[in-house]
Amino acid sequence: MGSHMRYISTRGDATPRNFSEILLAGLAPDGGLYMPESWPVFSADRWRSLRAESYPDLAAEVIAPFAEGAIDLATLRLLCRDAYVHFDHPAIAPLREIEDGLFAMELFHGPTLAFKDMAMQLLGRLFDHVLADQDRPVTIVGATSGDTGSAAIEALAGRKRINVVILHPDGRTSAVQRRQMTTVQAPNICNIAIDGTFDDCQDLVKAMFADAPFREEVGLSAVNSINWARIAAQIPYYVRAALALGAPDRPVSFAVPTGNFGNVLAAWAARKMGLPIAKLCIGSNRNDILTRFLTSNDMSVRQVQPSLSPSMDIQVSSNFERLLFELLDRDAQACSAIMQEFRKTGRMSVPQGVWEHAHAQISGLRLDDVETLSEMRSIYTRSLYQADPHTAIGIAAGRAAREPGVPMVVAATAHPAKFPDAVVEATGIHPALPPHLADLFDRPERFDRRPNTLGVIQDAVRAHVARTH
Ligand SMILES: Cc1ncc(COP(=O)(O)O)c(C=O)c1O
Ligand SMILES: N[C@@H](CCOP(=O)(O)O)C(=O)O
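That is the input. Now the predicted structure with pyridoxal-5'-phosphate docked in place:
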């Protein structure tokens, strides 16, 4: 391991940067995603030494090699300790055995009730830390299918040097998700409902990054998982769960419900760091581009269909590019050519050998809405566990991929109260919001509706930046 971790772009045409620089940059200027130049690998003894750490201290240790040369361990420890103070469970990400050998890793004990808080609470503090040395503010423009936006707003509301504009697809989030975003009145927050899908929102964000003068003008930055810092901050919970179940002396498997492919990529990164992860599997809803790819090498974009798991109503999964880069042995030219062709044609041609490699490393299962409801119902009947629709898809994927003697951990990505309609339909029981959100439906909302037009959204971002000065 070198003394400075640097980051390179998956498209190969960006100057290598350190952790603080890529935190602020978000997306690489060549349109690629930043990746660590090398993987830090922990020995079995190093993993074992982390077993006794609290979650925040473990997180600092796991993230430290990715921040080497930019943010030291002592600072990371302080930031992590502060980030997880307001979680409502002492274990931060507790494990619940819901079937024999099958565990839910509950990632929804943060303020906005979804796994996004696990990284976003830390990111807010990392931004503050890094911006303390800068003389100009940043403008974060984020795309959300519901959870990233609320977590980002919660983490960044009221922060002095940060303007935030969150784009969500109009009418395609749950009412709880929308209200978690639109009822926050802090002046640095702006919500825009786009006439389109999450993919349209994400495309707008990427188009803004591709517009160099605009990027410079507003000091554009990102908190979507295109930002490597998000992935780095999502690795520790896989480590924590695996160590609790016997790693590194025993392998552990993970199942992850997937949309933008960031969460499972964090698990995959933990495997690259030497954590003995046996199986990695993903679950998708009817927007199944990733499961189609993993089962039959069909990576072709179809129309996004609304589903009961709206956070995963995504067709173009940003983080797949990072996996592709790795599967291509970091051949950035090949990665760039494949991604450009995908952008142009909506179809990705992945060489058969590369696909076989992917297929061997990650498996996938798709559930439609009827299957999702039936899975939620049967989990509740068998285990009295109220899973939200995303988690239920993960549980089904985990059960399908399970091997005897190897614990299977499913990422429970959201609290059931974020998706009450589906939960009531499946179980007949209304999941209550926790006390801090009990009056969510009485709070006034504030957001603008805009067409899916780049120039219109750029003007809205400019106007927000001007207002906050
Ligand atoms: C509740 C929930 N589950 C699963 C996912 C999928 O995670 P990822 O996009 O990291 O694949 C998301 C968002 O993307 C989500 O909000
Ligand atoms: N499901 C996400 C989609 C954005 O994913 P991210 O990995 O870029 O944060 C959401 O809830 O917004």
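Residues 12 and 332 are 5 Å apart (CA to CA).
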